[in-house]
Amino acid sequence: MDNSLKGRVALVTGGTKGIGKAIADRLSSEGCKVVVTARTEPKENPNGHYFIASDLTQPESAESIAKEILTTFGRIDIIVNNAGANLSPGGGFSTLSDEHWITDWQLNFLSVVRINKALLPVMIEQKSGVIINISTGAAKQPIWEMTMSYSSAKAALNIYSKALANELGAKGVRVNVVSPGVVKTPLMLEFIENLAKSSNIKVDDAFKAVMDKVGAPLGRMADPEEIANLVAFLVSPEAKYITGINYSVDGGALPVV
Question: Which of 55, 132, 223, 242 sits at 20 to 30 Å (Cα–Cα) from 230?
Fold first, then answer.
């Protein structure tokens, strides 16, 4: 993209591992000044991303993140709301407590709403900015025994993102969604291991069960870099007429067009 992102300030939540790290590293390689958040600072940070420790399930975290970014850099050009996780146990509705539902919605939906609300006034004042909300294919294809509360929170994120894109288009701010399928991340591998333990089956069998449920024709997990490639394009000027779209990166798993 010929360094079209050089000098842009980008925030990537959950940016120290998995998909978030791949996105942060890719944006950095394109010339962005990258800010990443996570609960704990990584032991290694070879690309020198600016780190802010934060627990996004806490309502006050968004304002403190926004204040530090604007104090340090004076602007924000790109927000990638990547932080999220399927934290609840499998087994369907009867296994989910109020706490499970609240935790999944705090992390996967409300944290995004808060981050955007805290930083959007600056983008609107600049008359420019891009927001990418990372969702999941499970928001369209929920797996009741694995992702019920997580899927519902991400489905809300999809609707919110479309509404936000409609509101902000005339103000120079674009909003899009990227919905990965099964991605080879530490969190996904941990999820499969936990599924194997809870189901009393081998890890290989748990992986096969997940892939059978997802039904991706490509027959494999995505690499985090494959998600990052799309995000890097969508935040670039080359995508300046694209807003309000939800992109599936799922190896063909979604059974409709």
Answer: 55
